[in-house]
Amino acid sequence: MCGIVGYIGNKNSKDILIGGLSELEYRGYDSAGIAILTNGKIDTFKAIGKLVNLEEKVKDLEVDGLSVGIGHTRWATHGSPTELNAHPHLGEFSYVVHNGIIENYKELKESLISDGVKFLSQTDTEVIVHLYEKNFAKLDDELKAFEKTISQLDGAYAILLITKSDDKKIFFAKHGSPMIVGNSEDEIYFGSSDAALLGKASEVIYLEDGEYGYTSFGEIKLFNKDEEVALNKKPLVGDKISAQKSGFRFFMEKEIYEQSDVLSDAILGRVSDDKIIFDELESDFFDSVNHIKICACGTSYHSALSASYLLERDAKIPTTVEIASEFRYKEPLLSLDTLFIVISQSGETADTLEALKMAKRAGLKTLAICNVDNSSIVRGADFSIMTRAGIEKGVASTKAFATQVIVLWMLSLYLAQKRDSITKDKLQDEIKAIKHIPAATIVKDELHQQLKRLSKRYLHGHGFFFIGRDIFFPLALEGALKLKEISYLHAEGYPAGEMKHGPIALADSELFTVALIPKTLLYDKVKSNVEELCARDVTLLAISPEPFDLADDFIKTDSHTHPMGEFFEMMVVTQLLALEISIRVGNDVDMPRNLAKSVTVE
Ligand code: M6R
């Protein structure tokens, strides 16, 4: 999704803006641009495609002394990815970058056109800069004109605006899209996510919806509803090195290998020998909860589905799971004894955020399971449990999924112990199983090499079926999503027992079936489902601790005593399989086509 950076200071703003944008590349984009204002002189550059194209265009630009700059990576929503549609958008003397959607842009555009304004792009964003200049012409005051402009916008936005009429300031506003202001001594930085500010700013302010203001060298002025508000500065934590690839070919690969460590982090302090602890939750928060509804999108939806089995089985709480974009418009019936859980890696997914707002409006208790602290979803929920996966840069989510699942598993047990729906012995067995997960997810070189080799046999065919039962059904969905996201091959996840109700009609030797056949859960049932497929001559990749004679390829997993041990080990296998197939077909694993890391529009 789009990324924003900004800078005022004496350092080389060109390098800072490009560096910041490169830290945001993982969010996905199709064009990029910067504008730099030095002593009333503006330089703007835009390029479609990768950031290297923009770097090539700016290479001869010299920036000296105090300068003011804004930059943007765009993921096309209104208008195709062209240079004209790339940000910054320009008026006569002002420049703007924007994330989000201006919902009333058509009305505003028509009115501006009737005033004689000429538009260069097809974007909603361009209205902002023309509206600002129109307001400035009337009010003759930059801040007042900016205030008036944002008051006329409907929708979601994070905006940075610079103008030649006051060439040492950046005007900013946030409503519904993330924006962070950082500083280090007198240098001021902006970013739409922490990643752009790491290693630059030492302190940051996470702007709240409705906040706006301006910055000049060494100064930040923040307002809300015409009143100046105090700056709530926080130290910026996180290290840049962990945001780099550390020798792996792709961030996704690095993130698969990191899973064992981040899973250790996710359980740290949350499991003792005989109980589950969530210090971040108030002990009476779950009183009066009789139902759970979970809303999420994509991979987070798959972790929600896995959790629904665990919550019903362990905590004995009826649990339903919904895709957030469906939930939003179905006019759902919500009862006050329902706990509403949202799951999101980024904490900024528009549909999930809106589902959360709906639940809050209906008076439900809300809980966020999230990887990004201070994100919109975390700020919006009554309570949050952080998944502690660290920055995930690969667009295809891996370690974020792993940590979501382990947190949800711990949550099921936490609720089970609260409601006395689990015996002490069973809880201790579960805790033992949880503690074993970091070891179960260490990537073995032998396994990775085997997947590298066999991936060459799965580059053609007419599609993949990933099949599993129970919690291995959501894992099958996730395995299929991973593969299609980064290989662009057709893949579907299916409950193994459902194949004969239709999909088996597709079975032939060109149908690749990846079967998840755990030993600890419904082994015989899955085995016979897979045998039915083999009888139709599918090409089978079986993943199981038990040898499977009919398999064309076989990945032997370890023996586990708990199904979740098998779940996590098989998760790693499916991730590596997707990775190796994607590499063989020559795709950009970390930034697959048409996808964005954080989907902040519906
Ligand atoms: O940030 P979120 O977890 O809310 O994102 C939800 C989905 O957009 C995300 O999981 C998406 O499906 C990923 N590309 C999966 O790899």
Overview of the structural elements:
With 602 residues, this protein is of the alpha/beta class. The protein folds into 3 domains: 3-244, 4-Layer Sandwich (Glutamine Phosphoribosylpyrophosphate, subunit 1, domain 1); 252-438, Rossmann fold (3-Layer(aba) Sandwich), CATH 3.40.50.10490; 443-584, Rossmann fold. The chain is built from 17 helices and 25 strands. Strand 16, helix 8 and strand 17 (319-323) form a beta-alpha-beta unit. Helix 4 crosses helix 5 (142-151), helix 8 runs antiparallel to helix 15 and helix 15 (472-487) runs parallel beside helix 17. Residues 297-300, 344-346, 349, 352, 395-397, 485, 595, 598-599 line the site of 5-amino-5-deoxy-1-O-phosphono-D-mannitol. 5-amino-5-deoxy-1-O-phosphono-D-mannitol binds next to helix 8.
